[in-house]
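The methods section describes the discrete structure representation at length, but only in general terms. An entry of this sort, consisting of the sequence and the corresponding backbone structure tokens, reads as follows.
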Amino acid sequence: MKVIGIEKSSFIDYPGKICTVYFTPGCNFRCAYCHNSPAVMGKGELIKEEEILLYLEKRKKFVDAVCISGGEPTLQQGLDLFIKKLKSKGFFVKLDTNGTNPDILQKLLDKKLIDYVAMDIKGPLYKYSLLAGIEVAVEPIKESINIIKNSKIDYEFRTTICKELLSPNDIRDIANLLKGSKAYYLQNFKDGDTILAGKGKFTPYNMKELKLIEKEIKDYFVKFDIR
């Protein structure tokens, strides 16, 4: 299990809990708007597993949970063993994933190793390859969506949106795909120096536009919000 980054304390990554976020290197997508290009490209100094566990042991009074993000964590060998060690120390575990490895996702759920999962929905299925920057088989994406929706744990689906890549009609199509889910969040694009395609390439929606979309789709979900 490889880890190359840490956010020591997050109040937003795991709803209702204080968590430490660990970032794994490498991703099978190349989303141009990705905000964490160093992790995607595998850049960073490896953090030893024993160092991680020792640090968390010292932080147990202050941290409820661990979020495993990336990159794409399900590409990592030993992910399940690493999570077992986290669970043995009493931490809740959240997994961030792009949904391309439904078999691994199902195994983690079957073994009761994850308590929360957040799946990034890149766009409507017919635009996945364009948005992901590689050729994408959408059947595993659909399978992961169904696995998550039918799971007994807390979950969320989320989509990062910018004007150049996703139209309001695209967002409506995503909402129809996910209709009936517990939680769906739109994450308005935020520019920065670590964007994979470079700074200044993409434009966020303005709040007036997003509120019009929210009015149309919010009732599709138990919980909906704009981040």
User: Anything to note?
Assistant: Helices lie at 37-40, 49-58, 79-88, 102-110, 128-132, 138-149, 168-178, 207-217. Residues 138-149 form the longest helix (12 residues). The mean pLDDT is 96. The two ends are 30 Å apart (CA to CA).
